[in-house]
Amino acid sequence: MMFLLQFSNLFGAVYRQGNLSFSKDGNAVISPVGNRISVFDLKNNTSETLPVSTTKNITCVGLSPDGNLAIVVDEDGAALLVSLITRAVLHHFHFHKPVNSIRFSPDGRKFVVTKENVALMYYAPGKQREFNAFVLDKSYYGPYDETTCIDWTDDSKCFAVGSKDMSTWVFGAERWVNLIYYSLGGHKDVIVGCFFEKDSLDLYTVSQDGTLCVWESDTELDELTLKRNKAKPPGEGEEDEVEEERTEGQEGEVIRGKAGTPKEKEKTKNVRFKHFFNKEGDFNNLTAAAFHKPTHILVTGFASGIFHLHELPEFNLIHSLSISDQRIASVALNCSGDWIAFGCSGMGQLLVWEWQSESYVFKQQGHFNNMASLAYSPDGQYIVTGGDDGKVSTSYLQSSPKSTHEDPVYRNFRTFTSPRPAQFSSLAVDVSGELVSAGAQDSFEIFLWSMQTGRLLEVLGGHEGPVSCLCFSPVQSILASASWDRTVRLWDMMDSWQVKETLHLTSDGLSVTYRPDGQELAVATLNGEISFWDPHTASQTASVAGRHDLQTGRKETDKITAKQSAKGKSFTSLCYSADGESILAGGQSKFVCIYNVKEQMLMKKFEISCNLSFDAMEEFLDRRKMTEFGSLALVDEGAGDGEGVNISLPGVRRGDMSSRHFKPEIRVSSLRFSPTGRSWAATTTEGLLVYSLDGSMVFDPYDLDLDVTPASIRKQLRLQEWTSAIILAFRLNEKALKQEVLETVPHEQIPVVCGSLPDIYVEKLLGFVSACLEKSGHLQFYMTWAQSLLMLHGQKLKNRSGAILPTLQALQKSIQRHFDNLSKLCDFNMYNIKYAVALSKQRGVKRAAEEEEREDDEDEEEEASEELSEASWEDAEMIL
Asked: Could you tell me which residue ranges the Small-subunit processome Utp12 domain spans (predicted)?
């Protein structure tokens, strides 16, 4: 099953760089995270990482208007055409230069890419029955510096391009008679955004110094006239024009613009300057902008972390807020204009703000430094990560690791301190959760605290080097500690924490872990070996030499080859699988290795990243970057807009003139298997990576022969031979067919079928029931299956508790999730019932009060009428 594990999701990082985008319905944010793409569903509070990756960090993403396709471009200009429906890569392309921006036309027929000082217009793939790759239509020259932004008119007839030379160019997508190109000046800084008005050629441009220019055209879009080809036969309309066929890589039509207006005789199409705004103070250093055409809302983000909302063209300030102390790198608006997405690359923040209600829809910040450790919850529903930035965050795995959401940990309920200052280098908690231990790097001691009281219980001394790793036995009160003094010590709590055994290693100990049944111990040492020990006899049972499996790369600043540097590399993290048959190993490399413990052989290597933006990814350095004075990587060019991670001086928030950057080195800091056994996670330089089994893509028949077919299985169902049908279905092992057979069995026949199943199929059926219970709505039906299997085969399953532990934990996880959901639903219903009862009582009291008041009014009316009648009789008597 280890060979079927594949990448599932990426956590711990929500945004790195590049432009943010909303999905077509406006309910999901598409964010570039390193060399991958993450999709955050804001309605269901889940996230998903697409199973595609580029060779370097992604700089820009372009979405098609129908939301089916995405073009992803990395720092070198390598592009991927990705289907957002199938999550598959459809085409590879290379622009050969860094791409600044990419934008599809509103009709989806073309898209424009800007690189250097040129804008390239391509035919969009996927609009015809046959697949056409990236075919160049036209190349537009005009700006003298790098281009920065793109925007299209609503009818896809024209587009505008902003540039660092402080000019904006308007180009025609076709050869219009009255508009080929037009240059707009007036700004004094880099153009950050250019936006057309809805169904108009009127244009807004925003520059980095906070200047907004409004340009008004005296020509409407429908007044643009197409230039006719003289060779075209008469009588053909514009709709019948056939596009010229070109192949991929062939040069298209070249349009070269000059500053000013094209010198032609047409007297239409005159663009004149209308408004000019220049604001000082917080309006300086504008870094990102977005415009929502239907509502005329302009959103601008600044380097100070402040954003403003203005209504155009009057430039009325609607809203202003500081959301971060970091530079806002990207801004996006959803289709309705209610939600605004902000990306801050400095701290890895992603925020979605609903400006009308002034509330956060989504607010996440990943670890902006390396992750150091991770842990699964006992039921496998949560993953907690800790990083070098001092943050702890938790990720909730819902129905599958592909559907998650992340939250920070808010409350600290206990703090453990040592009697004297110590630098802790390792941490462990026992299975019961009552004891917390930490190893010191400077005093070589181990400290033990009580989780309940927070009191220090014991200080264990004896190591002669820093304590690198701690691990409690899952079945006994024994603590194993690995140290740089080349020993592993086993401390027995029952014997007043005395050293029970001392394991002597061949090199410094870096990591130690127990097998889930507590009958074996694995130790990773500095010489790249993994040794296996019997904790009862303190004898070594096996070892694996894994240094050659690491395959480390060469750093750009290394003076030696990768082969020589690999001699100093080793595994720093170990983790057993849930069944104890395999062990995960990771360290200073881009590979995670899975070894079979019994055979002492490598089963599979997982390449956790192919991102060349990290250091030590390649075995050989690029000789083109080598000079007679050394590698060009040794030259620090400053942070700027280049690749790498910024390093600021301590305490400096802004205005750091000595800012510089470095390329992080790829490595694996921690590994953990899920308690369910169906996934494992690794904290890496790239983030938290989760690899899991995808059961929908697995065909693994058991005891298959010619008689085991879907037809024979359904025949047994028609004959009501339920047990035989289940056995045949599990021999064929198709998920859909197994589910069909199980759900056909009558509810009252479930105990009979469970009692007649052979032992070999009981565990298989229990595992399948636990998987179905997690997603199916037939809660009582599958609960009956699970209860019958456990009641009738409980003793036999207990004897194999170690082997079926992952299945039982998966079953517990499914039941617990349904219990939580039903509890919330029942609490909500009880609240509604109580509210309805209280409301009815209140209305009853009110109705009674109204009736009583009405009766009082009637009594008063009767008394008044009686008095009136008596008075009238008295008056009549007096008259007589």
From this structure: 733-836
